[in-house]
Each structure stands twice: as structure tokens, then as C-alpha cells.
Amino acid sequence: MGTIYQEQAKVFKALCDPKRLAILEQLRSGEKCACVLQEPLNLTQSGLSYHMKILCDSGLVVSRQEGKWTHYRLSTSGRDYAVELLKELTTPYAEQETACHCCG
Q1: What is the DSSP code string of the chain?
Q2: φ and ψ at 69, to 5 degrees?
């Protein structure tokens, strides 16, 4: 598999876990410190860190350090990329043949 598919798969990996969907929902109201995200999601520090790495690697979430705490927020460009990727992957080619080559 090509590297482009590995990069694209990161977006879908980020979206295929209930905890990560809950994190995204929490971030819809604005930037949050890791300490604020942990408690309502019932996650340990290492559990949150694991999920946040996947979300950040996907481009859907960006982070910044402030002292010893990491703050997370949704990425507009990451969202736009994910939407366009899904549209691209689920839109048929205009001139694609519909007949099966083995049956012709």
C-alpha cells in the first residue's frame, strides 16, 4: 500500500473510536486543557495521551504546550481535509466503466 493511503487512513482511524468521538465533541466548545478532557471521559493521563496522539496525527486536532499542560483544539484545515477526502473516496469517476471485465 502506498504512503498516501497510510496518511489518509489516519483520518478514519481517528474517527473510528467512541472515546475519540467523545473528545471531538468536547472540543467543539473550544480549546481544552488535557486535565479538563480527562475527567468527563474517564481516561487516565496515558489513555488520553494515546487518543490525542491519534487525533493530532490525523490533523483533526492541534495542540500547544502551556507550561506542563497541553491544550487541544479542533483544526479547521484538518476538518476540511477529512470532508474532502471522504467526498473524493465516495464519488464515482464520471467516465468509469460499469461492466465487469470478466463477464464481457
Answers
A1: --HHHHHHHHHHHHHS-HHHHHHHHHHTTS-EEHHHHHTTTT--HHHHHHHHHHHHHHTSEEEEEETTEEEEEE-HHHHHHHHHHHHHHTS--TT---S-TTT-
A2: -105, 145
**Predicted confidence (pLDDT) per residue in 77-90, tens digit:** 999 999 999 999 99
Instruction: Please classify residue 10 by burial: count the beta carbons closer than 10 Å to its beta carbon, then call 0-12 exposed, 13-18 middle and 19+ buried.
Output: middle
pLDDT tens by residue, 4-55:
999 999 999 999 999 999 999 999 999 999 999 998 999 999 999 999 999 9
